[in-house]
TrEMBL record:
SUPFAM superfamilies: Pentein
PANTHER family: AMIDINOTRANSFERASE
Domain of life where this protein originates: Bacteria
Pfam families: DDAH_eukar
Sequence intervals crossing the membrane: none
UniProt protein name: Amidinotransferase
Length: 331
């Protein structure tokens, strides 16, 4: 018997393979997770990132996950490898497009990806929040929010990338309860994206509770997860810095897997890993070059929570993104 599907864990993902990857200097000022590599040339870094995405996509496919892999051949979108920030998909056929904090990231929105989703999956509507950028109101998708699709809760850490007005609007449209909190790293700097400190699965949650600044809010959030019956794996600051929270549970024909980076897996203790493997099969992906940009595996995978069409004519997923193509979507 095939394993029961989980509303929390998508069975398909969108990935972007960059041809000219580099850590983005335009986003470094509020992303303390970014790092520089002075040992390699820009060309070597770009090639390594290309190879890491290629291998990760192959591993996911081998594990039974549907991967829609798109190319980015431009030099204008250094963070395009992280598509989960500019769009998300939701059960019932809904797609959301998000307002991005950095102007350099607004060029990542791609009409070809949305058209692919409409062609291969049942899409009823596309709600576009990107116009909020004109009012300096930002909400960077499932980086800014970590969604509990089962309990209908949107967890969000305040930052330049997460505006409460936009969050409230999203939650009203998509029927989520917003839970907003302050989170900081060990140096007291606000954590730029919620999904670097929290991963919610069907039966397990990994979260850096010590990063939540307010003790009462911290206890409340821990209690919420306890009330859902999930096993809670509490992450240290060092584990957060190793991207242990930047993971995503995915469904496959062989059961649920936890996609995370090799670095993140190494950061977990044997006791934490023992808790995880009772519910998911860890799938480590080696992406050290991608992690220079301040994100990891969760950021690389835009989950597809849409019902597939029963019959689909041929549609080319793997179209190159040329500089001449439109960089934004008007929907």
């Amino acid at each position: 018997m095939a394993p029961k599907l989980s509303v929390q864990a998508p069975r398909g993902v969108v990935m972007i393979r960059p041809h000219h990857f580099s850590p983005n200097p335009a986003t470094a000022h509020d992303n303390a997770f970014q790092a520089q590599d002075s040992e390699r040339t820009a060309e070597a870094i770009a090639q390594a990132a290309y190879d890491e995405v290629s291998r990760a996509a192959d591993q996911l496919v081998a594990a039974g996950v549907t991967v829609h892999l798109f190319e980015d051949e431009t030099r204008e979108t250094p963070d395009s490898v992280f598509p989960n920030n500019w769009f998300s998909t939701h059960a019932g056929g809904h797609v959301a497009l998000y307002p991005m904090f950095s102007p350099s990231r607004r060029r990542e929105r791609r009409s070809d990806i949305i058209e692919m989703l409409k062609h291969r999956y049942r899409v009823q509507d596309v709600i576009d929040y990107s116009g909020l950028e004109q009012d300096a109101v930002y909400l960077e998708g499932t980086g800014a929010m970590v969604l509990d699709h089962i309990e209908r809760v949107a967890y969000a850490a305040r930052s330049n990338r997460t505006n409460e007005v936009a969050l409230e609007r999203f939650c009203t449209h998509f029927n989520f309860e917003p839970v907003v909190f302050d989170a900081a790293d060990r140096a007291g700097r606000p954590i730029y994206h919620t999904n670097v400190l929290m991963c919610i699965g069907t039966d397990v949650c990994m979260i850096g509770l010590s990063a939540i600044s307010n003790p009462e809010r911290r206890a409340e959030i821990a209690g919420r997860f306890a009330d859902t019956g999930r096993v809670l794996v509490d992450l240290t600051h060092a584990q957060i810095n190793a991207f242990a929270g930047n993971a995503i549970e995915l469904d496959s024909h062989a059961g649920r897997i936890l996609a995370l980076s090799s670095r993140a897996l190494r950061a977990l203790t044997p006791d934490q890993l023992a808790l995880l493997v009772e519910h998911v099969r860890p799938l480590p992906l080696d992406v050290p070059t991608i992690e220079l940009a301040g994100g990891s595996v969760r950021c690389m995978l835009a989950g597809i929570h849409l019902a597939p069409r029963s019959t689909v004519a041929h549609y080319p997923d793997n179209l190159p993104r040329h500089a001449s193509e439109a960089a934004s979507i008007g929907i």
